[in-house]
Design goal:
Layout: E1 29-33, E2 46-48, H1 51-58, E3 62-64, H2 72-93, E4 99-103, H3 109-113, E5 136-138, H4 145-158, E6 162-166, H5 173-179, E7 190-194, E8 197-206, E9 214-222, H6 225-239, E10 248-249, E11 253-256, H7 262-270, E12 273-279, E13 283-287, H8 301-317, H9 328-347, H10 356-359, E14 360-363, H11 371-375, E15 378-385, E16 394-401
Parallel strand pairs: 1-4, 1-5, 3-8, 5-6, 6-7, 7-12
Antiparallel strand pairs: 2-4, 8-9, 8-11, 10-13, 12-13, 14-15, 15-16
Helix pairs in contact: 2-6
Length: about 400
């Protein structure tokens, strides 16, 4: 007990109980593609918080009287610029607030995927390894299965983000069903949307009779991924990440590339393709919330994203244990922190069960750690979560080094 040498009132702060865990953001998207401008930002993930900021840094799709004279390759590039800029526009139009832009030189495999030569030297998709807050990855209109497979692999490796993918614009339903057979994600780190959407997008034009450039709205078809990413963000903000981003209106969409009927949807659903449908008097809506998972547990987008949210929130929320000895007092504090976090989620309706015991459990003791783990400062927790049915737990393990770790 300390000895105080002068009279007075002394206050000593004693820390007991667990530290609160804050939920991480789940609505930050990353867009990979080519843009009209912004060459100085090439291969540098750049945070954008509004459509105006995107235009200021990366420019917008433009049209001039000379466009008819462009080569087929040049027209293709302009179309890819439109896909990118229009998709970012749709992201903000549908509720997105923050996204990173990864401008690449072109949409070839080598540019989109990029290279990984270590921190600060990564390009393309690999550059997103350095942006922890990204939770949605979009490459608008990039439909090569070889590229999509690597985007999915990136998400599976990072474990904190999901890929939102497109199907080629002119594919009919049978072609769309065949297309998704070339991509897969056992644990559901990707979702596919179909068909393309009819929208108005901003473009800049300068005709011979115009003294200045002007901004006009152009009707066109766009891949749905960017608009859908905005709906993810909107749903997260309004209802929570545990709510499926389905039966949601796509703002700014005036039509579809083709009509999907109930019978069409049955076949597309079986292939885990999320349909976008038009309903008289109800607007154009996302009518599906499936991942492309082969594992039944991860077949729904909201379940996959809920687990991403929980795992990352806990991992970031217990970083403080690195300064603590690996003993029972620490285990109890960590268990309390995680339990309090999950209790809040249960009260919000994110976990199933009429009682907390049916919704989750947390273990952090000698049953989750071996003597070797304890002696070497490895803190290991076992967390069971019931996302679909009460008392049907999915188990995740959280590991962290403590101050007892041997260097």
């Amino acid at each position: 007990m300390p000895v105080y040498k002068t009279p007075g009132v002394y206050i000593k702060e004693v820390e007991i109980g667990g530290k609160p865990i804050e939920g991480v953001s789940t609505s930050v998207a990353a867009f990979i593609g080519i843009t009209a401008g912004g060459d100085s930002y090439t291969n540098k993930p750049t945070l954008i918080t509004s459509w105006g900021e995107f235009v200021a840094k990366f420019g917008r799709y433009t049209q001039t009287e000379k466009d008819d004279q462009l080569s087929e390759e040049e027209k293709k590039r302009k179309r890819e610029i439109l896909n990118m800029s229009g998709s970012v526009y749709g992201f903000f139009q549908n509720g997105g607030r923050r996204c990173y832009i990864v401008k690449v030189p072109d949409t070839t495999d080598s540019s989109i995927i990029g290279t990984d030569e270590g921190p600060g030297k990564r390009t393309g998709l690999h550059s997103l390894k350095e942006v922890d807050e990204v939770s949605i990855v979009v490459a608008p209109g990039v439909v090569e299965s070889s590229i999509q497979t690597q985007i999915i692999s990136h998400c599976e490796t990072m474990k904190d983000r999901i890929a939102v993918l497109d199907i080629p614009e002119d594919y009919d339903k049978s072609q769309a069903e065949s297309f998704v057979e070339n991509i897969s994600s056992e644990k559901g780190y990707a979702a596919v949307y179909y068909p393309w959407i009819n929208v108005f997008v901003e473009r800049e034009e300068k005709l011979p009779e115009d003294k200045e450039k002007r901004i006009v709205l152009e009707e066109t078809f766009l891949p749905p991924s960017g608009y859908v990413a905005g709906v993810y963000a909107r749903t997260d903000a309004e209802r929570g990440v545990h709510k499926a981003p389905a039966n949601e209106v796509l703002s700014g969409v005036i039509g579809l590339k083709l009509k999907i009927t109930d019978s069409d949807q049955e076949g597309l659903n079986e292939k885990n393709i999320n349909c976008i449908r038009s309903f008289p008097g109800r607007g154009i809506r996302i009518w599906g919330a499936r991942t492309i998972a082969s594992n039944e547990l991860w077949k729904y987008i909201n379940v996959r994203r809920l687990f991403m949210f929980i795992e990352e929130s806990i991992e970031e929320g217990i970083q403080w244990v690195v300064f603590e000895p690996n003993d029972k007092a620490l285990w109890d504090r960590v268990k309390q922190s995680i339990s309090s976090f999950l209790l809040t989620l249960w009260r919000d309706g994110a976990l199933m069960g009429s009682t907390p015991e049916e919704a989750f459990f947390v273990k952090c003791d000698e049953t989750t750690m071996t003597p070797d783990d304890i002696n070497n400062g490895r803190l290991i927790c076992e967390v069971g979560i019931a996302p679909v049915k009460p008392a049907e737990f999915v188990i995740i393990k959280i590991a962290q080094l403590t101050a007892s770790a041997k260097q």
